[in-house]
Amino acid sequence: MASLVPSLGQLVSDATCLFKKLFNDEAPKIAACAPGRVNLIGDHTDYNQGYVLPMALSLVTVVVGSASSGQEAIIVTASELADEPKKVDLSLPNEGFPSFPGLPHWANYLRGIMHHYRALPLPGFRAVVVSSVPLGSGLSSSASLEVAFYTFLQQLRPAPVPAAAKHPHNMMLPPPRFTFDDGDKVAKAIACQQAEHTHAGVPCGIMDQLVSVLGMEGHALLIDCRSLESIPVPLSDPGLVFLITNSNVKHSLASSEYALRRGQCEKAASILGKPSLRDATVNDLEDSHSGHGPTMKISDPSMISKWEDFHYSRVSTYSYCSTLFVFPVPAWHCNKLTLYSLSPSQESRAQLDDVTYRRASHVIGEICRTLKAAESFKNGSFQEFGKIMVESHNSLRDLYEVSCKDLDDLVCAAMEVEGVFGSRMTGGGFGGCTITLLKADAIHRTIQNIQGVCILELFGPH
Ligand code: ADP
Ligand code: MG
Questions:
Q1: Cα 195 to ligand 2 centroid, rounded to whole Å
Q2: Which of 82, 230, 421, 431 has the fewest beta carbons closer than 10 A?
Q3: Which residues are marked as active site?
Q4: Is the full-model pTM beyond 0.85?
Q5: What angle do CA 67, 68, 69 make, to 5 degrees?
C-alpha cells in the first residue's frame, strides 16, 4: 500500500507545534517552504552545462520561525536522519565574520545559505525545519532545505531598497550600507548552489536549486544549464502516472564519486578542446578515443537501442526474494561484449582513456536524449519518451557507472509490466530512487510487480 505524503498544512502544523514546545509556547511568525524534485531525464548533465528535465514534487521542506533580539541563530531540525545534534546555534555572519562549515553536517547547508544570502546583515532568529522529502534519496532534500531556508531569510528581513538603488543614476549618493536582495529567482538558486559547494562540500550543478525555486504545479521544467533559461513542459494527461520508487539504498558513496565524475568530465572536455561537454559531439569523442580496454563503440544510442528490441531481443530468468521472474534485456546491453575493438588508426589518434571516454559518451548522449525526451512528451509520444528513459538508465549503468543492483532491479521489474512506457534511475545514483512513466490503469499491477522484487516506499498524492 502506498503511504500518503503529508500535506503542506500538516507539515506547517507539525513545525508550529514543535516550535511552540521548544520556545516557550510562542507561535512562529514566519513560514517558508520549498519542494524536492525528481529528474525525469538528464542526469549528470547539469554540471556539464547541458539540459535537464526535472519536476518539482509535493514533497517539501518547511521552515517556521520568528526574528529574535540579539545575535542568536537557533535552528532545530525534526529530521531523524540528520546527524546530531538536531539543535544548533549558528553565529550570524557579519562583515569580517563569515560563516564556516563545521558540525553537525546538516547545519552546513544553513551556514552556507546565511553566508551567501544576498541581503546582509541578518537579525537573530529561531527556526524549526520539518520535511517530507526523504533525506539522501536523490529527491533533493538538500536543495529544498536550502531554498526553504533562503525564503525564510527573505521574509525575516524583507529586503531594504537602498537609496542608491532607488536612484541608480545619482552618483552623489553614498553607496548602500546593506547588500540587498532584489528578488531575482535565478540569483537565489545560484546562491543556494554556492552554499552547497562552499559549506556542504558538494560540487553540485544548478538543477536542484533552480527547479526548487522555479518549479510549477503540473509541469516539468526543461532547463538549459548554460543559459539558465527554462521552459515549462505540461504534464497534465490524466491517463499517465509517474511512479517514484525509493530503493532505500542511501547514496553514501555519492559525494566522493560525484566529485570524481565531475573531474572526469572536465578532463574529457579539456582533452577535446571544448569549454564543456555541452560543446562536444559524438564525432569529437570518436576521434579522441584510445580504444584501450572493453567499451561500447559510441554512436547515437537511439540508433542502437530499438524499443522493439528491448521487448523481444532476449529474455533472461533471475531469482530474487524466492520469486522467479523474467525480464527483457535491451539490445545494446547485449551488444556490450561485442563492440569494443577499434581500428589501429583510431588508436593512433588516442587521447582519451577508456573510462574518461565512457563518462563523456554518457554526458553527450544524455544531453541529446533530454532534448528528444522533452519533445516527445510535448508531442504525446509516450512510447518514445519511455524508450529514451530506458536508454538513459542503461547509459548511467554502463557508461557513467552510477547505478547499483537495487536500482537496476527496480527498473527491470517496472519494465516487465504491460502499460509501463519507461523506467530509469534518477538523481546522482549509487542508490536513491527510480522514476517510471506508465498508464494510470497500470499502477496497481506495477506496484505489485515491484513489490515482488524488494522492499520499497511509495509516495502517493494527498
Ligand atoms: P538528497 O539531496 O538527494 O536528499 P543529499 O546527500 O544531497 O541528498 O542531501 C542530504 C543531506 O541534506 C542530509 O544528509 C542532511 O545533511 C541535509 N538535509 C536535507 N534535508 C534536511 C532536513 N530536513 N533537516 C536536516 N538536514 C537536512
Ligand atoms: Mg542533494
A1: 12
A2: 82
A3: 208
A4: no
A5: 135
Please work out whether the CB of residue 145 comes within 6 Å of at least one atom of ligand 1.
yes
Cis peptide upstream of residue 162 (ω within 30 degrees of 0): no
Q: Which of 242, 274, 165 is nearest to 437 (CA)?
A: 242
How many Å lie between the centroid of ligand 1 and the Cα of residue 207?
Answer: 16
Contacts of 200 (CB under 8 A, 6+ apart): 101, 105, 108, 109, 112, 142
Rounded distance between C-alpha atoms, residue 210 and residue 230, angstroms? 9
- Is any atom of ligand 1 closer than 6 Å to the C-beta of 138? yes
Q: Across all residues in the chain, what is the average pLDDT?
A: 82
User: Which residues lie closer than 8 Å to 209 by C-beta, 6 or more apart?
Assistant: 143, 146, 147, 189, 190, 192, 193, 196
Answer for the pair 266, 280: CB distance below 8 angstroms, yes or no: no
Ligand 1 nearest atom to the CA of residue 79, by list position: 24
Residue 170 has pLDDT above 50, yes or no: no
Coil, helix or strand for 129?
A: strand
Residue having the nearest C-alpha atom to atom 20 of ligand 1: 141
Check if 209 has its Cβ closer than 6 Å to any atom of ligand 1. no
When pLDDT is cut at 50, 70 and 90, the band that residue 436 belongs to is: very high
Amino acid 212: pLDDT: 97
**The residue type at 169:** H
295-304 pLDDT, tens digit each: 333 333 333 2
Which of 61, 81, 145 is the pocket-test mutation for ligand 1 (most atoms within 8 Å of CB)? 145
405-420 pLDDT, tens digit each: 999 999 999 999 999 9
